[in-house]
Every structure is written in structure tokens, then in C-alpha cells.
Design goal:
single chain
Length: about 400
């Protein structure tokens, strides 16, 4: 293009730079714009906006502001894209106060921020727990009569639910829907989670039904929240109904769904049902993970069926699955339960050799098992190891 005579319009250069930026080759864009400057190819506002965007993606918002100064110097009027890009760049760097100030300052200068500007700020504020400031930004949007959508409300609803302010979240949800704003999946899921966290599973189930009435298809996450909560409440029949409803709607249960079911059966000492669910998961093409195995191993250990637990542990190793500290600690506890503390001690050494560090719970369980089974020499040796590692002995004891 630069060898052509006459040179193509800057519009064509900008189109090319846009494609390169979308491919995330931000440094390349910057280099090419510098070449354009050397060849005296005058940029337009779109070219400079792309340059601001690339600097922001490279965490150089300071250079993005330099480009903004150039935009003004060349007599261009910064548009929403210019401002929004800088606001987003500041938010990505965690400079949220600066982002809010920039939006306000540009607004005072006549460069009005739009709904996207505030949506970026709201999202960033919620991520750092500044929910009150996010609500203030939402109020500014409402006062400015911006056309709002669910994306403006969702981060705040999610943040309120995470903070345990469920009543406030539901009020905001009600305000949103009363304005005729259609909620979406990302509106409902935090509310379902929040209701379940407080044990309001019936209200959570109603929200799932309400989603369907609004033609919003619940996803696997929506059902997982509900199924997990019902299982924790010991409502196995209701959990199975939710699971059946999930499958009827063509939503495949994932690893989290199955793990919740397996854990519930293990807690109730229904190991045959737990194994059946484990095998069903495999048949459905959902590969068990370390958590799946650890849950099942824990169930066997609590039932003092140590042989089955060991078999599962070896199955994990055969599948090149790396046991974590929970897996090892569970099996160590199992050995201690059946009066085999020396086997537990040997497993501790295997654990350390594999590079997995025992935690305080691991040591406490093993120390208790050694002393209760009369292995005082080994127990004192382990105690000295704990002292040498400067762990909190009081917690272990």
C-alpha cells in the first residue's frame, strides 16, 4: 500500500489497522502508525482511536492520553470511542477513580460519556467491591436518560448477592424489570445463587421457572446451583427432580453436577449409589477429575472400606491424575481409622516425594493416628518434623 502511487486513502490504512488490532497484534499497529507518520500519511480520528486502544491493551494508558492530546491538537473532536477506550484502559489497570474522574471531566467539557462508558465503570467498581459507587454511576445513567439494558444492572446485582445483600439485589431486580428492562441469564444466576446461599431453595426454583416464562433458557450453572443447594439441605428427591428437569431440557449435567451428587451419597454412606453415579458420569462422557476421586475415596475411608479407597487412588495414578493434598489427607485419615498408621506415614512420605506439601490438617490427623495406635517413636519423630518446619504446633496438637 505504501508503495502505491498515488497512496490509498487513510480510510484503507485504517481498515487494515483495525483488522490487525482485532487479531491482538497491538505492537504491530503502533509500529505501522509510526511508519505512516514518517511517510506523512495523515491519520484520521478512527486511526488515532485504534492507536489509543492498542496502547491501552499494552497497559500504556499514559501513551493513550498522549494520543488524545494529539487528537485535540489536530483539531479532531474526541468521540465516545476515544473516551470509552481510555476509561476501559484505566479500569483494566485498576485506576477506577481516575476512570470515573475522566468520564466526569470529559462530560463537563462537552464530550458526553454514553451508556457503555458507565457500564465499563460499573463493572470495574463491582469487581473491586465498590458496589455503592457502582450504584451511584447507575443513578447517573438513569438521570441522563440513557437507554439502559441488563448489562448495566447485572454487575451490581451480582456484587450485592456476593456481599450477602440479597434484599437489595432483589429490590434492584424489581426496579429493573419495572422499567421494562429484560433480564437475562447473567441477571438470574447470581440471584439463584444468593437465594440458595440463604437456604431459600423454593424461591430459587421459582426464579428458574420465571426464566423459562421469559424465554430465557437456564444453563448448567443455573441448575448446578439449585441441585447443590438441595443436596446440602438433604432434599435428595427434589435434587433428583431438578436433575431430571435439567436433562429433559437438553442440558447435560457437568462434572460439578455429578460431584455434588456423589458427595451427597457419600455423606449418607450410600457408597453403592455414589459409585453408580460415578459410573454414570463416565458413561455420559464426563471425565472424573481429582475432586470426583477425592470425594469417593473420602466416602470409602469414612466407611472404613480402605481397600476400595486404595484401588481408586491407584486408578487415579494409572490415569496420570495427580492427587492433591485433600486426596492424600483423606487416604491418610482412612489408614488411621482402620488402625494402619504406619501405612499412613508411608503415604505421607510418598506425598512429600511427589512434591505435594502436607498441610496442618494432614499432620494433625497422622499425629493423632500414630499416638492412638501406640506408635510413639514414629509419632515423636513426626512431631519433631513439625517443629523443624516451624508449623503452628498448637493448631496441630
Amino acid at each position: 500500500m505504501v508503495r502505491m502511487h498515488p497512496l490509498p486513502s487513510v480510510v484503507y490504512f485504517t481498515q487494515l489497522l483495525t483488522s490487525i488490532a482485532r487479531a491482538k497484534h497491538h505492537s504491530t499497529v503502533i509500529t505501522l502508525v509510526k511508519q505512516m507518520d514518517l511517510l506523512e500519511i495523515a491519520p484520521d480520528l478512527y486511526t488515532l482511536n485504534i492507536l489509543v486502544n492498542c496502547f491501552c491493551h499494552l497497559n500504556r494508558v499514559d501513551l493513550g492520553f498522549s494520543v488524545l492530546a494529539k487528537i485535540l491538537k489536530l483539531g479532531f473532536q474526541p468521540n465516545c470511542v476515544s473516551i470509552n477506550t481510555l476509561v476501559k484502559g484505566l479500569c483494566l489497570q485498576g485506576k477506577i477513580v481516575e476512570a470515573v474522574n475522566l468520564a466526569d471531566e470529559m462530560g463537563e467539557k462537552g464530550f458526553k460519556p454514553n451508556e457503555f462508558t458507565y457500564a465499563v465503570i460499573i463493572n470495574a467498581l463491582c469487581k473491586v467491591g465498590e458496589t455503592d459507587l457502582a450504584i451511584n454511576s447507575l443513578r447517573k445513567m438513569e438521570d441522563a436518560n440513557f437507554v439502559l439494558n441488563a448489562a448495566s444492572y447485572n454487575p451490581i446485582i451480582c456484587s450485592l448477592c456476593k456481599d450477602g445483600l440479597l434484599t437489595d439485589a432483589l429490590k434492584l431486580f424489581s426496579t429493573m424489570t419495572s422499567k421494562g428492562i429484560q433480564p437475562n441469564l447473567f441477571t438470574y444466576n447470581p440471584l439463584i445463587q444468593g437465594l440458595c446461599n440463604f437456604g431459600h431453595w423454593k424461591e430459587a426454583a421459582k426464579l428458574v421457572t420465571e426464566m423459562e416464562e421469559r424465554n430465557i433458557m437456564p444453563d448448567v450453572y443455573s441448575f448446578n446451583i439449585l441441585v447443590d443447594m438441595l443436596l446440602k439441605e438433604g432434599k435428595m428427591m427434589e435434587a433428583k427432580e431438578a436433575l431430571d428437569m435439567m436433562i429433559e431440557k437438553g442440558i447435560e449435567p457437568d462434572i460439578f453436577t455429578h460431584n455434588s451428587l456423589i458427595d451427597c451419597y457419600c455423606q449418607q454412606n450410600k457408597m453403592d449409589e455414589a459409585v453408580k453415579t460415578f459410573n454414570t458420569m463416565v458413561r455420559r462422557g464426563c471425565s472424573p477429575d481429582v475432586i470426583s476421586y477425592s470425594i469417593l475415596i473420602n466416602g470409602y475411608c469414612k466407611s472404613k472400606r480402605i481397600a476400595e479407597a486404595i484401588n481408586l487412588f491407584h486408578e487415579m495414578l494409572d490415569k496420570r491424575m495427580i492427587p492433591n493434598v485433600v486426596t492424600y489427607t483423606t487416604l491418610i485419615d482412612g489408614f488411621c481409622r482402620v488402625g494402619r498408621p504406619l501405612a499412613a506415614l508411608e503415604l505421607l512420605h510418598e506425598m512429600q516425594a511427589s512434591g505435594e506439601n502436607p498441610n496442618l490438617q494432614t499432620y494433625a490427623i497422622l499425629l493423632d493416628g500414630l499416638f492412638k495406635n501406640g506408635c510413639f517413636v514414629e509419632g515423636m519423630a513426626l512431631f519433631r518434623e513439625i517443629v523443624d518446619k516451624k508449623l503452628d504446633i498448637n493448631i496441630v496438637i
